[in-house]
Each structure stands twice: as structure tokens, then as C-alpha cells.
Design a protein that fits this description.
This is Large ribosomal subunit protein bL36. The chain is an alpha+beta fold. It is built from one helix and three strands, in the order H-E-E-E. Strands 1-2-3 form a three-stranded antiparallel sheet, with helices on one face.
């Protein structure tokens, strides 16, 4: 799966975690919960 640039930039933020669930790619951040993204 190609990863969009918006997902990649969010994934580089401190505290971010990239998670694959049921074929979707999510970025979640415990330190800054506003930083969320989803692809797929």
C-alpha cells in the first residue's frame, strides 16, 4: 500500500504510532490526541 504524504508527516510527530487494523492504516498519537489519520 502506498502511504500518503499526509500520513507520513503525522507519523513522524513525537508520540505517534502507525497501526494496521483490518486492512486500514491509522496514525494515532497519545501525546497529542488531535493528530489522527486514516488511509484505506
Amino acid at each position: 500500500m502506498k502511504v500518503r504524504a499526509s500520513i507520513r508527516s503525522l507519523a513522524r510527530q513525537p508520540g505517534s504510532v502507525v497501526v494496521r487494523r483490518r486492512g486500514h492504516l491509522y496514525v494515532i498519537n497519545k501525546k497529542n490526541p488531535r493528530l489522527k489519520a486514516r488511509q484505506g
